[in-house]
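Support reply, case 0932

Customer input (verbatim):
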Amino acid sequence: MNVQQGSAGATQVLPRDGAGDGRVVPCPMMETSKGETQGKLPPYFPQPGDELPAQLEGSMEPIGPWATGRVTFTPTDGLTGVRPVADQYSVTKFGAPQWRAHNMKFFKQSDEKIRDAQLAINNAKRCVDRSYKEADKTQLESTDHLRNRAAEVYRWKTELEHVIRDITTEIELLEADRRRVKQSLSVLTVPESIAGELLQLRTKRLESDLIKDEVEEELTKEVALCTEIRDLLARTREQIELQMTELKAAKARMEVDWTDKTDAYDIDSNCIQLKNDSPIILWKPGSTRFPAEQSTPASYEHYTRESLTDGEAARQRSANLRSTLDAIFKNSIKDLRNQATRVDIVLGEKIKLTEEVRLQLEKELLRCLYELANTEKAIEQLRHSVRGLDFAMKVAQTRLADRLRRRNVESCRDTPEFALIEEVKLLNERTSAMKAELKRAEETQAGLVKARSDLEREIVVKRKTLYIDKQRGQLLRSFYPSATALSGI
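Our regenerated output:
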């Protein structure tokens, strides 16, 4: 046996008889002898004249050793010769020509079968050669198809890897922004608490300063701004969580697709490496079936492109959301810091104005105290002066009373009498005038006392306001978070 190796590893087994070139090898029994080369046939083959009727040399009895019998014809045997005649020696059925024709028949039959066998062998060899060549060609084509398919699967797998890597990075960035928003919401409670506590403290101002001023308006705006920013960040955090869910779903889908493609690529790579002499090849009955769940190349490409498109779209939406979040942080922090600056400015102006009012009130209180002291001195002097006129009044009345004791004609309405009466009248008038001035001075003193009390109370009010706005309010405002802390970094 000869072994030939095909281009794809196919093994062919050929006979060693040298008949692979298509020539018919004659039967060894049919080889021509020297007599045939001279135009003579062997004596056991039909000879010339066998087709003619046999000529009897002499008459013979119908019954006997030489009986020729009777010529018979049957559809199966044809002209078989003579009817057999049984005698004591033999059964005669054929003649010599029929015997030689019979020999020729078998030799021809054998030769035909040999030629048919050799032709069948040559046809089988050509079929084997053609089959192996076609098998090798088909196997090479299948290998090329597998290699192209593996390259395509590897290309899609690589694109999926890139998109999965981008989505993983995007998820990490979005998670950082989510933590940033959470931290910002936590820090946002500080300015809310500062503004709310300062508003609560300012409600403890005393009556005259318990007004709705610019500081309260700006603090109210700050609280409203903090609430608005908190609501906006809360909605943004919900959007971030939804976007993270979408990204994780897209990533999981692509990871499953990537795993399938990796397995498919490994399977196709192993199939490419399989040869006819591979030790792991086996009979696999039923491997040529088409599973009902198999996809088509069009649906395969559509599914993969859809996964890539959905993943890229989700990543782009996430990037847009992060850009929006950056803008929200930028604008919100800017608004908060501007509002905090306005609150600090109006609070400082209010403190400065209250300080100025307090200083003026203290100066006015000093003036009031000074005038009150002068008034008290004047009242004391008026009282002393009134008491001094009392002595003069007593002298004049005593004189008049003593002069009333004059008797008779001596009791005269003379000039001293009228002078004393005028003196008493004048002293009464002056005393009344001084008492009126004393009363007016006492009323003025009472007014000054009330004014002093009011000034002192107002000073207390202003000091209370300054304590709330300056010592408590500005101390609270000093804990206002910075822009970096508000941004959640």
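We compared this against your earlier run and they match. Two observations from our side: The longest strand covers residues 78-82. Confidence is low (pLDDT under 50) at residues 1-29, 33-37, 63-82. Please reopen the case if you see a mismatch on your end.
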